[in-house]
Design goal:
heterodimer; A: 195 residues; 0% strand; B: 186 residues; mainly alpha
């Protein structure tokens, strides 16, 4: 029983339960870091791009974590069939809502970043460039993440895994990697389009 | 428990306001990051540390917040400094940070060397990672306790409020701590 556990037992149990999720996100975080490390040319070319990085990564985690949690609850309650082929309108609407909110938050991040940089008199690439990068990266990572969350959570559920514990590490890992990769592609496309 | 209907409008109404507030907070973290852009661009291993430090700080907070939230729902949590459950979970959070941040430091250094660019000594990158991680785990415990306590006093469901707030606040602290430690060590 919980009430008779010592501090040491509580700590050991919390440690063991936390380590797998943290290790998964460590791998995703380092991979995302390699992409960011390889983006030095783009970061130098687009002033203000680095300001967007934490906001865009967090948006991926917040939006698709929420989508994953919603799907997990629906699977537990039995009102969603865990098969992509049998996807109904509700699932499509939940995915559409996630992508739409991701795009809105991304564009909003570009607007706030531009305003903050102007207020601090720091260099910025300009609103159209930052909004274009934010929207493109939000769209690319949104398609990749929505697909990953639905496919992996469905497959995990069919194999008997608890979708609640699957969603957290999955979204942090895939969110970091796809989020950074999409940002790199978006930055290159916008630089190529402007040049 | 009432669930949000599965329509684009209902989901957006439930999610967007919080999302925009969190996005604004994260722009603050981006501004801190861009204030040491020169150091980050000069050393790829420091740039590699950024997403993993932010992510791990957020995860340390969210794992603790989820555990305290469950304990809170089960009625096994009290806000007393002598509460065994609080203390045990706080100790586990610091121990988790001290286990993963050395791996993060060596990993970021190694990947920085592999992907080219000017390299910092391994001890410097390891030092930045471990000191940042130790400081962040203590901050994550403090932020989670305060957020869970505030949710409890305001009678909010900690599942809805505490986890996103703690995750994003820890993200920001991740960047701030990294900035301070880089100024001290690099």
């Amino acid at each position: 029983m919980g009430s008779t556990m010592s501090v040491r037992e509580i700590a050991v149990r919390a440690y063991r339960e936390g380590l797998p999720a943290l290790s998964a996100s460590l791998v995703g975080g380092l991979l995302a870091g390699v992409v960011l490390g390889g983006m030095r040319a783009e970061l130098a070319a687009i002033d203000g791009l680095l300001v967007l990085v934490p906001a865009l990564l967090a948006t991926r985690g917040n939006v698709y974590g929420s989508l994953g949690a919603r799907i997990a609850t629906a699977l537990h309650q039995g009102f969603l069939v865990p098969r992509v082929r049998e996807a109904d309108d509700r699932l499509l609407r939940a995915v559409a809502a996630a992508i739409a909110n991701g795009l809105l938050a991304s564009a909003f991040a570009a607007v706030v970043a531009t305003a903050a940089l102007a207020w601090l008199s720091r260099p910025a690439a300009g609103l159209p460039v930052l909004v274009a990068v934010a929207l493109l990266s939000g769209f690319l990572s949104g398609i990749a993440l929505a697909t990953t969350v639905v496919v992996v959570v469905f497959a995990g559920f069919r194999r008997g895994y608890n979708p609640d514990t699957l969603v957290g590490p999955l979204v942090t890992t895939a969110g970091d990697v796809f989020g950074m990769a999409a940002l790199l592609i978006a930055a290159r496309l916008v630089i190529w389009g402007v040049a | 428990m009432a669930r949000t209907a599965w329509t684009v409008r209902a989901i957006t109404r439930a999610m967007l306001p919080v999302l925009l507030v969190l996005t604004t907070i994260e722009i603050g973290s981006g501004l801190v990051l861009s204030s040491f852009e020169a150091e980050l661009l000069a050393y790829p291993s420091l740039l590699i540390l950024v997403p993993v430090t932010i992510g791990t700080a957020g995860n340390l907070g969210s794992i603790l917040a989820a555990r305290l939230s469950t304990a809170f729902h089960l009625g096994t949590l009290s806000f007393d400094a002598r509460d065994d459950r609080l203390l045990g979970n706080a100790v586990a959070t610091v121990a988790l940070a001290l286990s993963v941040f050395p791996v993060i430091g060596v990993g970021a250094w190694g990947l920085g060397v592999l992907t080219g660019g000017p390299a910092l000594p391994v001890t410097t990158v390891l030092g930045v990672a471990v000191i940042s991680g130790a400081a962040l785990s203590v901050l994550a415990v403090a932020v989670t306790l305060v957020a869970t306590y505030v949710a409890y006093r305001l009678e909010l469901d900690p599942d809805d409020v505490v986890i996103p707030v703690v995750t994003n606040v820890c993200d920001v602290l991740g960047v701030v701590v990294l900035f301070v430690v880089v100024q001290l060590l690099v």
